[in-house]
Amino acid sequence: MFFITQKNTGSGGGFNTGISWAFRHGYSWIWCMDDDGYPKEDALEKLLEHETRDRSLMNCAVLNKDDKRSFVWKTGNFKTIDEVDTAVIEGIGHPFNGTLLHRSIIEKVGVPKTDMFLWGDETEYYYRIVKQHKYPVYTVASSIHYHPAAAFTLKKDWDHRTSWKMYFYIRNRLHVQQAKFSNRAVAMAHYGFFLIAFAAVIMVYQKSDKAKKLGFMLWPVADAITNDFSATPPAILYRLNKQPGTRGGAMRNVWHTILAPFTVQRSRNTANV
Q: Angle formed by the axes of helices 165-180 and 184-205, to 10°?
């Protein structure tokens, strides 16, 4: 068994290092999973039984580790593994939870982006594989990976002073959309819709520091649009605890934040005329 140690570069950096190491050392298959889940004993065997003639991305069926029946995330139209009546569920995968990669995919697609750090790094990589490079994706029903139930929800009030992960959630969403949609204008439009929805969630469901949370959005949005990946968790925490929070200023900031993707796109179009 071989262990790799490195400085904290988030999940994006961890998967980048692990996948890159295995690829450089000539491994044909690379099996990826987060640290909060675990596979059933025969999960890898079951995945390999369904290797397709044309290379594809294969994923375990991700089940709640407590009841061992219900899917943790939306998996087609199925709520429990008992409802599944097919060997594979086409068009569905949940990286990196028992995700099996062949080196031929890495040769074409590359590896996860260290710069994304966390929250969205796996989804961006997933869309690069299945959207940009058109690899089919399957969840193998007989290959089981257990994972805790999804506990986080944006509707639950979060502590503004310690919620540094929200920076990455907001910034990385643009890069996820750009991997999902080949048309930049479409990706920017979807990002704008996301920002509107995110601001609405803050206004409706958050109970504390609404003005500060709205005002904070401007920073990750600006970094997303300018491809600035320099922010670190300590820097984000420092800014969260030093951020001024007047209601009027915050509302102006969120308005600019919501319009930012469209404004930048329009400015670029004007510059190209």
A: 150
Give CA separation, 23 vs 91, 210, 214, in Å: 25, 45, 42
Q: Are strands 137-147 and 57-64 parallel, antiparallel or unpaired?
A: parallel
Distance in angstroms (rounded) separating the CA atoms of residues 168 and 152: 15
Spatial neighbors of 15 by CB under 8 A, at least 6 apart, are 32, 96, 111, 112, 121, 122, 125
pLDDT tens digits along 132-187: 999 999 999 999 999 999 767 888 999 999 999 999 999 999 999 999 999 999 99
Helices (H), the chain: 10-24, 43-49, 103-109, 121-127, 165-180, 184-205, 210-216, 218-225, 233-242, 247-272
DSSP state of 63: E
* Domain count within the chain: 2
The H or E element containing residue 82 is none
Could you tell me if 57 and 17 lie in one domain? yes
Domain extent for 107:
10-147
| One-letter amino acid for residue 240 of the chain | L
94 and 172 in a single domain? The answer is: no
Quick one: 233 and 127 in the same domain?
no
Strand partners, 62: 145
Please tell me the total number of residues recorded for the chain in this structure.
273
Task: Record the pTM.
Answer: 0.87
